[in-house]
């Protein structure tokens, strides 16, 4: 390699996972999981415009993750610095106690980080990506670099599958579905359609019905991929049959994406960010 491979590089488990388009579903799953933390979701509700600009917020979040995964070291560090500066200025109020808290509180940052990386990993595995136990632990350990970017001390972040399991067990008493969480989950499940999409559909003589139903199926799969205890907080079944159905749905979606990509020109089979990274490192 002749260029900067960034924080991870082509031999990492991180690149192996994040070249899979199915991880978009993992990102959606992580948002449902993150919304079960009362302070984390209150901080978002009180400081963001997701209700009026949900798609813009999701795009910015996806851009940040992509930069951290596939960007150069400088690009990843600059993105992390911008995020730390933003969080350092923001405050939220606990919905129950009204206590004011910082959005860069390490406990909140840790919850968001763990929910995100565990969701990416779990979704990939449930969709059929083959990983050994050692590779699973390696992915969590690699992601300590991403945790450090947002301002966390890596020594305080779960770095193996067993540590993540222990972390979730310790966090469960703090989690519950609040009004902010329910509203966020509703927006994730039935998002508003941007005006420009509706206008385009009308000009083409199309209806937005099929895309909306397709997205609803994705949201249902994301919820089904949650841990049983998290699904129960949303009032969804925590039964093993739900796990089975969600896993089959994720595998089917990955197979569909793989089939579509196989018939596309070569330049469309790799994401622009991944392709740029490969070019950069020659």
Automatic annotation (TrEMBL):
One of its GO terms (molecular function) is oxidoreductase activity. InterPro entries: MPAB/Lcp_cat_dom (IPR018713). Residues 15-256 form the ER-bound oxygenase mpaB/mpaB'/Rubber oxygenase catalytic domain. It holds the Pfam family MPAB_Lcp_cat. Coiled coil: none annotated. This is ER-bound oxygenase mpaB/mpaB'/Rubber oxygenase catalytic domain-containing protein.
């Amino acid at each position: 390699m002749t260029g900067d491979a960034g924080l991870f590089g082509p031999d990492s488990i991180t690149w192996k996972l994040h070249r899979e388009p199915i991880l978009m579903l993992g990102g959606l799953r992580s948002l449902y999981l993150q919304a079960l933390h009362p302070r984390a979701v209150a901080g978002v509700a009180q400081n963001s415009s997701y209700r009026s600009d949900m798609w813009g917020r999701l795009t910015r979040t996806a851009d940040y993750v992509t930069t951290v995964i596939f960007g150069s070291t400088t690009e990843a560090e600059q993105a992390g610095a911008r995020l730390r500066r933003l969080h350092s200025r923001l405050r939220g109020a606990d919905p129950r106690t009204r206590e004011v808290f910082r959005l860069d509180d390490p406990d909140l940052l840790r919850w968001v980080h763990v929910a995100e990386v565990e969701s990416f990993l779990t979704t990939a595995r449930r969709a059929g990506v083959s990983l050994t136990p050692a590779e699973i632990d390696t992915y969590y350990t690699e992601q300590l670099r991403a945790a450090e970017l947002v301002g966390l001390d890596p020594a305080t972040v779960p770095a193996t599958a067993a540590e993540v399991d222990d972390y979730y067990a310790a966090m469960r008493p703090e989690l519950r579905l609040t009004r902010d969480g329910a509203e966020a989950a509703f927006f994730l499940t039935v998002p508003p359609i941007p005006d420009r999409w509706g206008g385009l559909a009308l000009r083409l003589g199309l209806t937005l019905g099929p895309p909306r139903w397709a997205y609803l199926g994705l949201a249902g799969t994301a919820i089904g991929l949650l841990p049983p205890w998290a699904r129960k907080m949303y009032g969804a079944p925590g039964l093993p049959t739900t796990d089975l159905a969600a896993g089959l749905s994720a595998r089917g979606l990955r197979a569909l994406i793989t089939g579509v990509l196989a018939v596309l020109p070569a330049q469309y089979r790799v994401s622009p960010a991944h392709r740029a990274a490969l070019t950069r490192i020659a």
